[in-house]
Amino acid sequence: MNVMLTRLQAGMVIVTNRPFLDSSGRNTLLGCMAQHWKDERGETVWTFPRRIAERTANMPGVTMTPSTPKVPR
Predict the structure, then answer these.
(1) Is the separation of the CB atoms in 46 and 37 below 8 Å?
(2) DSSP code, position 9
(3) Phi-psi bin for 10: left (phi > 0), alpha (psi -120 to 50), beta?
(4) DSSP 17-73
């Protein structure tokens, strides 16, 4: 995960199991990151996979229109 974090250029979407991060995963690096962003922005940091696939998720800094390619080039 450390290598992944140092290579980011624009942003990151993490797909995970929320109950895991609220319980036994709480003290992992990912759990701490999730808590940090939840403290910063509240519950809006969580969305549903279907909303991402349908391009209706609220993702600050990301333009999600029907014409946006699914795979970045």
Answers:
(1) no
(2) S
(3) alpha
(4) -HHHHHTTTTTSHHHHHHHHHHHHHGGGG---HHHHHTT-S--TT----TTS-SS--
Q: What is the pLDDT of residues 37-69, one digit of tens each?
A: 899 888 888 888 888 888 888 877 776 666 555
- The amino acid present at 67, given as its one-letter code, is S
Domain segments of the chain as ranges: 13-73
pLDDT in the model for residue 23: 94
Neighbours of 34 (CB within 10 A): 21
Higher pLDDT, 20 or 69: 20
